[in-house]
Amino acid sequence: MPSEHRRARTTVVGDADDRPLDPTGSPDPTGPPDPGDPPPVLTAADVARITDRMAHQIIENVARSDFDAVLLGIPTRGVPLAHRLSARILAFADVELPVGSLDITLYRDDLRLRGVRPLGETVEPDGGVDGRVVILVDDVLCSGRSCRAALDALTELGRPRSVQLATLVDRGHRELPIRADYVGKNLPTAAAQDVRVLLREIDGDDPGDAVYVDDSEAFGTGAS
Ligand SMILES: O=P(O)(O)OC[C@H]1O[C@H](OP(=O)(O)OP(=O)(O)O)[C@H](O)[C@@H]1O
Ligand SMILES: O=c1cc[nH]c(=O)[nH]1
Fold this sequence. Notes:
The protein is α/β, with parallel strands linked by helices. It is built from five helices and seven strands, in the order H-E-H-E-H-E-H-E-E-E-H-E. Helix 1 (about 45-60) packs across helix 2 (about 80-95).
């Protein structure tokens, strides 16, 4: 298993793609880097297909608001996902939703538990957030604490008309009353497992996009 890649925990989402996963993985080139590694639960082709479906769902929904919506990625991997969704929405609907990013580090309720972390970047989307539909984008939804922190961080940017949440994977294990409006894949997982999302913009082309479910025991802490 490539130790340089982040270990994450998960279960994925939707009007989610709930088709059974192929336990043997797929022949997609996004295979595990080491021969002994388990295959990814989602390959690059799966991630692309899921992203396209989420883009269509967002189009259907924000059309009701005259597309007065922005996508705000939560660092780290929510940011490239937000850009991908915007690009696919442009391709499908010929509408360009502005993209920004929202650093939540200082709003987390576990700052002391997690130790020092570098600050991420907050980038206000073109036109700001006031009075608009803000779609928070993240790669994994688990406890909901990151989303809660994002809602607090968002108050620094303005007062949206409404806030929605899009996540590539919902692994359950919620600790707060938070749900996603757009779920790529529901991945039921044990609490001790980690869902690890790799995206080529952050993690490079080798192996490229992939989602793994790891047994945290096998990898030490289980921290993402
Ligand atoms: O619902 P939660 O339990 O809060 O978990 C979800 C969050 O955890 C991961 O981020 P992480 O804090 O590991 O930071 P990273 O994105 O920079 O890796 C993931 O990217 C989500 O943002
Ligand atoms: O990225 C993450 C966050 C929480 N839990 C996971 O399994 N992965």
